[in-house]
# Entry
Amino acid sequence: MNLNDCYNFDDFRKLAKKNLPAPIFHYIDGGADDETTLKRNTESFLKCDLVPNILASVGEPDLSTTVFGQKIDLPIFLSPTAMQRLYHHDGDKASARAAEKFGTFYSMSTMATSSIEEIANISGGPKLFQLYIHKDQGLTDNLIDRCKSSGFKAMCLTVDTVVAGNRERDHRWGFTTPPKLTLKSLMSFAMHPKWSFNYLTHEKFQLANVSHWTKKGSSIAKGVMDYINEQYDPAMSWKDAEYVVKKWGRPFALKGVMSVEDAKRAVDIGASAIILSNHGGRQLDGSRSPFDQLPAIADAVGGKIEIILDGGIRRGTHVLKALSLGATACSFGKGFLFALGAGGQKGVEQILTRMRDEIRRDMILLGCKSIKELNKTKIAYR
# Structure
């Protein structure tokens, strides 16, 4: 199996599983506790159907939308995800270059393995930075200031990770940063010599945006969950979010909003967007899926704030359903990470090609000339 054989999410997942050592693969693939929310994120799209209109003279549909004050060519972009260097030796650089080619946002995690400045130098495409509130206020301020200096278009504050979710697969496989060699994981690394060679012969693993400030999580074997629990501020509050909105002063989103009340408050503090997300089912297991919460939140704040749906996206039809119910755009993480693990930058470009082609084809079949024509009339619940 190779990239040319990858037509959908499951194909990229299978190739990534073949290429990556088990601890790395399961870190991407897994969720919290019993992984019920992880499964529900995608299953929720099956609750409703698309209703097409015929003879609409669509021609070539316009797939563009505007989010964070930036026009993008696709209504989907790359979610911020940590430690991409583990999935392919080019890591964030590969993802940023691929996103730029498709005219959409690349999103950088605080826990990226390339620095803010490195990515700014290699990509002229629109970039979003995902911030965590650290216990050390100086580190938080440093990240914001560097993003301003480096020309990032937008910032989001992740609000659903004040403590780490119970990701049992990470415990089971001994996943740490950098990778920790246990008897079980050693066998998997030995069975993936290409990955191991590339990991050892390319630039040293580090959390490039924070390594100058703290060595935890980069120069010693430290579990991801341990890093979160030690470094992130569990007392984060709305005052912290307001502080970031004012200090940043540019398009800003709260990532991890799931309730109508929180969506309304995001409007009140001056956020320009909210990202409906349960962290890919990796935090609170048993929580609602973003798609299930979308209609109520769109009814409450639609038109007042941009709404981005993040979670469970596997197909172009998922994107169209979300846009029809009030989302401004969508983002996805697991899909492009599996593609990154499957083939680096070419893999990310391949999955973006598949998603673009699906969205374009499905809009023609749906009878829509542009994203603006997607609305509730295109949806029927079972």
Notes: The two ends are 37 Å apart (CA to CA). Residues 334-366 form the longest helix (33 residues).
